[in-house]
Amino acid sequence: MAVNVPYVTLNDGNKMPQVGFGLWKVDNDTCADTVYNAIKTGYRLFDGACDYGNEVEAGQGVARAIKDGLVKREDLFIVSKLWQSFHDYDQVEPITKKQLADWGVDYFDLYLIHFPVALKYVAPETRYPPGWFYDGESKIEHSNASLESTWRAFEDIQKKGLAKSIGISNYNGALLLDLFTYAKVKPATLQIEHHPYYVQPYLIKLAEQHGIKVTAYSSFGPQSFIECDMKVAADTPLLFDHPVIKKIAEAHGKTPAQVLLRWSTQRGISVIPKSNSQNRLQQNLDVTSFDLKDNEIQEISDLDKNLKFNVPTNYGIPCYVFA
Ligand SMILES: NC(=O)c1ccc[n+]([C@@H]2O[C@H](COP(=O)([O-])OP(=O)(O)OC[C@H]3O[C@@H](n4cnc5c(N)ncnc54)[C@H](OP(=O)(O)O)[C@@H]3O)[C@@H](O)[C@H]2O)c1
């Protein structure tokens, strides 16, 4: 069954598929096949990052799909992210070019600042991806790069055509408001953790007021973080088993996962679910063809606990970016 995924128009005029495929925790040995099969299934957006350590393999899947005539490069929307040890102005362009080479493409459709915190530079020859620790073990070392200087570098790589659109991730309201004081180019998108336990309605409102499209990550809440052995995730009831989500899924003949994704897409938010299973990635794409009732959307939003899982300290990493 072919699924028609709608596109959202970004503030720079570029069009982005509203449903994409997330590449975090897609194993290196299966990544190329997973990307190839996801393209075959109908995915056009891939959400990657230096930190996921699988950009080479994701690019191999893309190259095979293009070679086999499934898609052309221009049919795809490839997203990547700048890791925080490359925030210094002079490091942004070289690392963008390395990431493009890893993917085997000559532009990203969208390039994001992954986290609003600058860490000291680690050369790719020393360790890649570098991770959070300067010494690769336990030491957090910050760099003096301001977010303003990193954004200036983003505006410059966009001018050079290395990224068609530029955006940010994991920014809060204060950082967005600050960015508006210096940005010559407003971010096209804001990627944030967004699920019924972490709704952030005012952050979404602020982004919308400024014409910035929001992409939700970790739409299934604790599920993704259980795989990381995160205690707070293990201690939180799964959204898939929540009576409200189950009741609504049954009423629509859909899975809880599809309801969680539709809760976002119906409010104009994009989603990038990840799955290592062909059956699940197929169902995750079909999340714009049915409508929830207004009161169902509200009931789901009312599950909010203001509970963010993706915080470095939850992984035992002593970086206090979200303190
Ligand atoms: N900007 C950031 O800081 C940031 C942070 C986190 C994530 N992200 C991006 O967002 C993407 C999505 O977030 P995520 O990977 O954290 O989590 P997610 O997509 O919310 O959840 C993935 C988990 O849900 C399972 N799953 C997927 N589809 C399912 C379905 N239909 N039914 C039941 N279980 C299902 C997956 O298992 P199986 O694989 O076994 O199906 C996996 O355990 C990432 O891959 C990444 O691209 C960005």
UniProtKB/TrEMBL annotation:
CDD domains: AKR_AKR2D1. Keywords: Carbohydrate metabolism, NAD, Oxidoreductase, Xylose metabolism. It comes from the Eukaryota. The keyword NAD applies. The record marks 81 as: Lowers pKa of active site Tyr. It comes from Neocucurbitaria cava. Pathway: Carbohydrate metabolism; D-xylose degradation. This is D-xylose reductase. Its EC number is 1.1.1.307. The active site is at 52 (proton donor). One of its GO terms (biological process) is D-xylose catabolic process. Substrate binds at residue 114. Belongs to the aldo/keto reductase family. The gene is xyl1. Residues 20-304 form the NADP-dependent oxidoreductase domain. The keyword Oxidoreductase applies. One of its GO terms (molecular function) is D-xylose reductase (NADPH) activity. It is an enzyme of class 1 (oxidoreductase).
